[in-house]
Design goal:
Signal peptide: 1-25
Shape: globular
Strand content: over 45%
Pfam families: Alginate_lyase2
Number of helices: 3
InterPro entries: Alginate_lyase_2 (IPR014895)
GO molecular function: lyase activity
Number of strands: 16
Keywords: Lyase, Signal
């Protein structure tokens, strides 16, 4: 009887594992919101309308278009170098831009905000592939942004001609200071990142942890409370194409994993 009980337990465990794997499998026929429920819960989409102007919209389970779609789904074909069902962000160079910017974006904007000077421990993490680069060879794929117009990009994570670079504005409106974190990261190579924001009454620290092709990097940046006083901050993820010219190029970014947590 003991052997039977062990066998039943083993079979039950295998069944549970199979069901769990099926539940989390990414289906190439599904829209991004079906494969990644975090999108519908936690983000809005900034993309383009039929006139190539920027629009922001709620993400539904079925939302999918020529700029925001699942890898291998629809008429876009399949990028075989990246996982099936990954979220695809396509931003043609020279398309419309948001206010106070010259560059086109297909990006996720987190719904939840936080403020420097309060206590929090928040994190956005993802697995990213730069699938296609524009003529400038520069794409921002993750950010901590502010809602104050002009100069409120607190932290930007960009791929620039094979390097992964952090862009930091210590105070609102500062010139951006850039730090190269990894180099030799080619197209279609997976970049795993964790972007951690920790706030206290005296200020805020942002830690970025990266890995790609066996290489790792980690760095922490400090932000004084007064430098960002009262500005609502939020995470972003996706494809902010750093090519403002209609030169026929486009940027493609894929996310095979995305999560955001607030404490």
């Amino acid at each position: 009887m003991k052997e039977k009980g062990q066998l039943y337990g083993l079979l039950a465990g295998l069944l549970l594992t199979t069901l769990s794997a099926s539940a989390w499998a990414k289906d190439e026929q599904n829209a991004p919101g079906e494969n990644y429920p975090v999108l519908t819960r936690s983000y809005l989409l900034q993309s383009f309308d039929s006139s190539q102007k920027v629009k922001e919209e709620k993400i539904t389970p079925k939302l999918q278009n020529q700029y925001f779609y699942s890898n291998c789904g629809g008429s876009e074909g399949c990028d075989s170098a990246i996982p099936e069902g990954a979220i695809m962000f396509k931003a043609p160079s020279g398309f419309g831009s948001t206010a106070h910017s010259e560059f086109p974006r297909v990006e996720l904007r987190a719904r939840q905000n936080f403020v420097n000077g309060s206590e929090f421990n928040n994190e956005q993490s993802g697995s990213v592939y730069i699938v296609q680069a524009p003529s400038t060879r520069s794409i921002i794929f993750a950010q901590i942004h502010g809602d104050k117009p002009g100069g409120s990009e607190m932290f930007k994570l960009r791929w620039e001609n094979g390097a992964v670079v952090a862009g930091v504005k210590e105070n609102y409106g500062d010139a951006e200071k850039r730090t190269t974190l990894l180099s030799g990261v080619g197209l279609n190579e997976k970049i795993d990142y964790k972007l951690k924001a920790k706030g206290t009454s005296g200020g805020m620290k942002v830690t970025i942890e990266l890995s790609a092709d066996g290489k790792t990097a980690s760095k922490t940046f400090s932000y004084p409370e007064l430098g960002w006083k009262g500005i609502q901050l939020y995470f972003k993820a996706g494809n902010y194409n750093q090519d403002k010219d209609k030169d026929g190029s486009e940027a493609k970014v894929a996310y095979s994993k995305l999560d955001v947590r607030y404490q």
